[in-house]
Input
Amino acid sequence: MIWQDYQIDSTISKATEDITLWETEKGIVKIEKGTLAIGLKLRDQQRGYVLHGHGELLLDAIVETEEGALGKPIEKELNKPFLMLGDTDEVQQHLTTANKEDLTEMDYEDSQKFVNEAEDLFGRLFRGRLYDYRCFDKHDGFVFAFPSEADELSILVTKDSKLVYKAEGMVFVSDRNKAVLKSPNEVVVVRGGKMHVVKKHGSFRHCC
Output
């Protein structure tokens, strides 16, 4: 199946060891040995994977201000299929072909079941995309899509020092000493330790 020029591969692989997919001082995404992987291609070029196994997302979503720290660290166990777009070189080096026992261990009756899961996840990402992924390549950083317990997609977009994390009820944007933290009741903007707060009802507060 194809969405916006992307195609899901038919070959299912598994990780031969633990793999760190993304890591900066702000966070890390990693998967464990045995995680299943199915490739995502754009015009025959490998651009990402749908992965299902065991892993972890850690994200420092704490904003330091002159009035103290806001936000909280995000810790998420990755036990559901999730999607990654970006540099696949490191992942490709640690994959081998999965067998029926590997699929059974993750509760798949056959390879088509995992393909169906990958197609569904990829379709959901494009229906609710933050921007156009058709031109996305490994030089543009990473995009991750993680289903939540409520089956909503949490999106992490990163490039160099910049990141955007969007989950149910919150948005966190960070770039070096600048950050934006949006919750249902307010938007906090921090730059160089100085904080600006906009409440949902329209009030504004500036803290020097």
Remarks:
- The mean pLDDT is 84.
